Amino acid sequence: MACRITELILDCADPERLAAFWSEVLGYVELAREDDGSIEIGPPGVGAYGPQPTLVLSRSSDPRTGKLPLHIDVNATDRDQDAELERLLALGARHVDVGQSGEESWYPLADPEGNEFCLLRRRIEPVQP
Length: 129
Fold this sequence. Notes:
alpha/beta; 4-stranded mixed beta sheet; 2 helices; globular
């Protein structure tokens, strides 16, 4: 038997803002809201503990931003990389310089609070509930 990642927790200053951003990026919906201000988002119609991990945006007075020890990579499911890049930028992502050469097949980006993530080139099939 093995373990499976069920939740990813991201400390942030504004859970509302990041929940809205990441819900649009991933096609997720709000699943739960805690008294401490945390918001859990996940795939619609599946909820927690499905085949994809949920994302918990946890309010913190001292969130780390920039290069995190763990970051998120995303792949488009219904468009090419350039179209997805334009969509992410319109949602509030921004380009970041992480020392890339310009020859990479991915785009390093940051979410509205500065957390780095990468948009990879490969288009993948969406997970079916």
